[in-house]
Amino acid sequence: MKIKGMDSENGFVEVGVLPIERRDGRKVELSMRSLPLGFTDVCEEKIPSPAPPAEGFVRGAGKKGKPFLRDPDTGKPVVFYNEKDLKYVARKREVNRLHTTMMLVESLKADPGVDFDVKREDCKTNEEYYSRIWEEFGEFGFSIGDLGVIVDFMQEISNISPSDLKEAREDFLPEE
What we know:
- By secondary structure, this protein is α+β, with helices and mostly antiparallel strands.
- The protein has one domain (2-51, 84-172).
- Helices cover 40% and strands 14% of the residues.
- It has 5 helices and 6 strands, in the order ββββαββαααα.
- It has helices spanning 39-46, 86-107, 126-140, 144-157, 162-172; strands at 2-3, 6-7, 15-21, 27-33, 54-57, 79-81.
- The strands form 3 sheets. The protein has a two-stranded antiparallel ribbon with strand order 1-2.
- Strand 1 (2-3) and strand 2 (6-7) form a beta hairpin.
- The radius of gyration is 21 Å and the shape is extended.
- The mean pLDDT is 86.
């Protein structure tokens, strides 16, 4: 694709530098790039989001002989999914954190100075790999606030609206 002389080789990828400073004067600058189109699908393929557990069927409107609400197309009872199940909620939060970690790793590929100790080939699963990278963020000394600033910057340079990452950000940055 070309747009007004700009081709896909050099493209429209935005790269920005995010400075993070400490009160004692120490500073780290992170180069980050915008996320490619469809990257959320890549995240979902590598670590699928959980499905809420089925806990029976949706009750009907009280009509005699029809205790369950039925799908008009199939005639089958409509399944009730418990999205408040504690195991499901915990797993969903974990997957959202891992997806956000994947996005950060992708965005930080723009910075040749960022090198994670863990390598993908050292891990049996994608989940293990991104969990270990999450641990490295903490071991480096990034605070919850730092990670919030980094996620916000990645969101900004990727032109992602605040609502697009709201849920993932909330799970990535748990309340203390």
